[in-house]
Amino acid sequence: MEEINHRMVRVSGINIHIAEKGEGPVVLFLHGFPELWYSWRHQITALSSLGYRAVAPDLRGYGDSDAPTPIRSYTCLHIVGDLVGLMDALGVEQVFLVAQDWGSWIAWYLCLFRPERVKAFVCLSVPFSPRNPKMKPIESMRAAFGDDYYMFRFQEPGEIEAQIAQVGVSVVLRKILTSRKPGPPCLPKGKEFRDDPDTSITLPSWLSEEDLNYYASKFNQKGFTGGLNYYRNLDLNWGLTAAWDGVQVRVPVKFIVGELDMVYTTPGAKEYVHNGGFNKDVPLLEKVVVIQGAAHFISQERAEEINAHIYDFIKKF
Questions:
Q1: How many Cα neighbours within 13 Å face the side chain of 154?
Q2: Would you name the residues annotated as active-site residues?
Q3: What is the residue extent of each domain of the chain?
Q4: pTM tops 0.90, yes or no
Q5: So what CATH class is 5-315?
Q6: Over the stretch 213-251, which tens digit does the pLDDT of each residue have?
Q7: Max CA-CA distance within the chain?
């Protein structure tokens, strides 16, 4: 880990922390919630050894990057703006994109808004989500999954942060990162992160106490509000992206998901991925890979497999 270089880059009026290693074409890694650049530690090492320059930022609001106070500073336009600014700061016109969870959501926006900046995209966990012009996302999710659905529960500023503070950062991270429950993920009010009476969860082989302590140290320092603000802009993003309604994503894509992933196991997801909807919206979708027995955080759980999948795809371009 000491061989990975760290520095701050000034983009869009804020400081973004990046971890980078290697020389060659840039592979830009985007983490999810509640994660950091650190989730790509295995991929940074692997891809840099194969002739690529691996770059993984802490996204706006996370880790050592700045976290602006206004909730509206976390729209898709802000985050994509950060990424375009980062590419410019790196001195590259195009990148290979690899993303997971919320990082994937932002990556889809980047591919939609600025496809000329992306050579190819390896997407983990979260498929493209076409805009529904008739209903805002939060209303739609609440109608489908109820008031306990986690994205709905994240909407009220300060509410879920208070619950996390009560339970403890390390306990919450341990529960989220090791969860293998099928979707849709729900957080019943008053029982947030308390559904399992046994708080001494044994960590899997792919996540050490040292790893967990690194995540916890950064979230204790920065808090969760920045990351939660991404969810709080879902409806605003819907309004801001009306001009792209119905537009296809025209970037070469490989989609990889764990069989037990909470997104993939949410009702409707498998049908969209496998029954033609995904291909219609993303016509350059080249391959869908379902990793048996794997859950949501596959860049860490199945690091070697993911490294091979990334390389096998991007080496073609």
A1: 23
A2: 101, 231, 296
A3: 5-315
A4: yes
A5: alpha beta
A6: 999 999 999 999 999 999 999 999 999 999 999 999 999
A7: 51
